[in-house]
Amino acid sequence: MNLILLGAPGAGKGTQAEVICAAKGIPAISTGNILREAVKNGTESGLKAKKYMDAGELVPDEVVIGILKDRISEPDCKDGFILDGFPRTVPQAEALESMGVRIDRVVEIYVPDEKIAKRLGGRRVCEACGNSYHVDYKPTKVEGVCDACGGRVVTRKDDEPATVLERLRVYHEKTAPLKDFYEARGKLKTVVGQEAVEDTTRLMLAALE
Ligand code: AMP
Description:
This protein has helices at about 15-25, 30-40, 45-55, 60-70, 90-100, 115-120, 160-175, 175-185, 195-205, and strands at about 1-5, 30, 80-85, 105-110, 125, 130-135, 155, 190. Helices cover about 45% and strands about 15% of the residues.
């Protein structure tokens, strides 16, 4: 099954992608995580991407499409995958189609902007393994230390308040039109993001039936 998770930054796509990955046994692919890793390793695409990411802008389509194409051609994707954070523009969605990638379902997680701003402000991530936490909803057992690997847990640069507003603006301008794109193809389902992760998961799994 090939799935796309759509939604504003901070709507919970990453968390839900991991849950579905465990439930369905298909990999969750986050272009944001791949790009952050590339920045950390100082690769060519990382160097190109960093200034856009820090400003809350989208990385140019050709960079991201190349990364995604390489990733989905890896063997673990042969029975399907979950895309978290791709496509984010209509040209990216068109690129998937022209690669001949069949999409079975697109699930939008809807969370209003005011809630997004609160969620992202409290979000913390592990510098070492990328695990995600929240100061109120999913705190680490020891403050500032990752439960999974013991790495340092920090605020992402693009989760700072001014950058969050810019990311939301970009989402509405560039990514939200994908709802119409996939609606027209009969693929879109919308789930309202709930306070408790498990409640959203229940709705997500029902949307995938
Ligand atoms: P995310 O972790 O999904 O919020 O992604 C973090 C940042 O990576 C975004 O704000 C963009 O700068 C960049 N990024 C991730 N995925 C894409 C994409 N599909 N297209 C363009 N930029 C992306």
